[in-house]
Design goal:
3 helices; Thrombin, subunit H; four-stranded antiparallel beta sheet; about 220 residues
Length: about 220
């Protein structure tokens, strides 16, 4: 009887282990390293990302060899930006992802993506603002994320009756100029200037975007 119980418990543990390994990966992530990428996956500045079909592929800038490949089951990337040693990708289901080549660090879902992304195609949506902040420009709003952890920093809605045009945004350091066409507004209201702290206005008091301080000297 004891032997049967032991065998039964062993089989149960084996089945639980198999079920654990068969669980679907969250968001369908598939991150695969090449032989060289496994040895040095985080060598900053030595690879550059490209969209290749249904995946984001990082290529060694010296040899041209692939370092790693990141895909999501059933989806394809429509835009990608390289921020230091991170790659931020926008996917056809409106999901925003960040990877450093070793792991997928964070995921964020863009609201209303099904309404605008198929026709817009992702052009100009991802706009780095510097100082570790990424602006995501969509027709209804501009949303800013901290690239280190995906933290939402600020949101700028489009003016009522207007829409943002991501493909018509221009960088004029240190500002990003975003077109906001309006049928009933002066031309000065149809162009919005942004930086890493939000909309540029004379008397703004923006929140800081740095990571919270930790340790005994951190302010509460």
């Amino acid at each position: 009887m004891r032997v049967r119980r032991a065998v039964g418990l062993l089989l149960a543990f084996c089945l639980l282990g198999a079920a654990h390994h068969l669980r679907p990966v969250p968001y369908g992530d598939r991150l695969v390293h090449s032989a060289r990428g496994e040895r040095q996956p985080h060598a900053g500045g030595t690879w550059t990302p490209r969209v290749r079909g249904t995946a984001v592929v990082a290529y060694d800038t010296r040899t041209g060899a692939p370092r790693w490949r990141y895909a999501r089951a059933g989806h394809r990337p429509v835009a990608v930006v390289h921020a230091r040693v991170q790659v931020i990708a926008l996917w056809d289901d409106g999901l925003l992802t960040d990877t450093d080549g070793r792991s997928v660090r964070w995921h964020r879902a863009l609201p209303d993506a099904a309404e605008w992304l198929p026709g817009q195609g992702g052009t100009g949506v991802l706009r780095p603002l510097g100082r570790g902040i990424l602006a995501v420009v969509t027709p209804r709003r501009v949303t800013a994320y901290r690239t280190s952890d995906g933290d939402l920093r600020w949101v700028l809605p489009a003016r009522k009756g207007c829409v943002f045009r991501p493909e018509h945004a221009l960088r004029r350091a240190p500002a990003l100029l975003v077109a906001q066409p309006c049928a009933d507004a002066a031309w000065t209201e149809q162009l919005v200037a942004l930086d890493h702290l939000g909309r540029i206005t004379p008397d703004r008091t923006p929140l800081g975007n740095d990571l919270p301080r930790r340790g005994p000297n951190a302010r509460t």
